[in-house]
Write a structure and sequence with these properties.
- The protein contains six helices and 18 strands.
- It is of the alpha+beta class.
- The longest helix is centred in the last third of the chain and has 11 residues.
- This is Fumarylacetoacetate hydrolase family protein.
- Keywords: Hydrolase, Metal-binding.
- One of its GO terms (molecular function) is hydrolase activity.
Length: about 230
């Protein structure tokens, strides 16, 4: 017999290629992890220590639709590689880090840029600009057992057929194993954690009706419509 005082919410999960669903525990996002994007955001691209923020698990959305959010007039796309963990722990070494990865998916870190900008100016947290409803569209999760561990390959985003973002996974300042190891020094990572690994240059606004096509070499393409 349940001891909950109300019905608990449905667990958050994302679809896996070949069948099944991956249960989501936490979502970590790294900031400014491509040098060209750091420059376009007004920062020095030198390899300084990484920093992370979080989205909520239920921000992940595999529906292929992105509802334009309220209280903003400047929503930006950020194309990213999502890394899903099958296990975790603390103080994970870089050489051991990839052994904790279940798989990879294309994802978008949608951002209310105007609200994020206001928060930055006042030295406040970014959640109001980053962690709103359905702010992380995500495509099909491909197991590493099928696609390997992509450490290079083209990542690009087109909006209405026009190329907006392009880069290569090998241009990440902090590579996937390093991100996992660094996070594990500060948090206890676990199965179900998802890491959004940063975006290349070319971030920009979207409007209702826009169609975003995200492709990452070696993974299934992902289309998202702004509604």
């Amino acid at each position: 017999m349940s001891n909950f005082v109300m019905a608990p919410p449905e667990p958050v999960s994302i679809p896996v290629a070949g069948g099944g669903r991956f249960p989501v525990r936490r979502v970590y996002c790294i900031g400014r992890n491509y040098a060209a994007h750091a420059v376009e955001m007004g920062h020095d691209p030198d390899r300084e220590p990484p920093f992370f923020f979080q989205k909520n698990p239920d921000n992940l959305d595999a529906s292929g639709e992105f509802p334009y959010p309220p209280k903003t007039s400047d929503v930006h796309h950020e194309a990213e590689l999502a890394v899903a963990l099958k296990s975790g722990g603390t103080n994970i070494s870089v050489p051991d880090a990839l052994g904790h990865v279940f798989g990879y998916a294309p994802a978008l870190d949608m951002t209310r840029r105007d609200l994020q900008g206001e928060a930055k100016k006042m030295g406040r947290p970014w959640e109001i600009g980053k962690a709103f409803e359905r702010s992380a569209p995500i495509g099909l999760l491909e197991p590493a057992s099928s696609v390997g561990h992509p450490d290079s390959g083209r990542i690009e985003l087109k909006v209405n057929g026009a190329l907006r973002q392009q880069g290569d996974l090998n241009r990440m300042i902090w590579k996937v194993p390093e991100m996992i190891a660094y996070l594990s020094d500060y948090f206890t990572l676990a199965a179900g954690d998802v890491i959004l690994s940063g975006t290349p240059a070319g971030v920009g606004p979207v409007e209702r009706g826009d169609v975003m096509d995200l492709t990452i070499e070696g993974l299934a393409a992902f289309r998202v419509v702004v509604v």
